[in-house]
Amino acid sequence: MAYIMVDVESDGPIPGDYSMISFGAVLVDQQLETTFYGKLKPISDKYIPEALAVSGHSRQDTPTFDDPVQVMTAFKTWLDKVCKDRPIFISDNNGFDWMFVCWYFHHFLGENPFGFSSQNLGSIYKGLQRDMFTNFKHLRKTRHTHHPVDDAKGNAEALLTMKHEMGLKLKL
């Protein structure tokens, strides 16, 4: 299995009505140097200015981004290249990130290379700590900037800390 840490930025709360503006992915290994970054043009006229602002992009910028079919095809090609076997989707907020990536894969390519499930980094940490009120974010080394590759990398660093320093069984 290959763990792929993913982070999504969007212009609203749900795919279809709103758009995934950008996303980043990092192959979880010791180097954390194998990354993917995609910027996608909107698929809808709807957007929430405050949600879009988090990404650091304006509505004037986003129509110049890449076609979603091209980006999702490139992401699938990247996954095929970097994963020796089945990729495992993991993110800080998999309810949100998974929803967008899964919808975009199925809508634009008719399949999702990740299958039908994802993992939540925060839940893994809560389980390790046996505390539903604790948070892993202090384990990040890369600053959380809302650039999705930075954020995915910081989350991957936290996962590696859980493996190396906290005893999480994780085969890389």
From TrEMBL:
Highest taxon listed in the record's lineage: Bacteria
Designated name of the protein: 3'-5' exoribonuclease
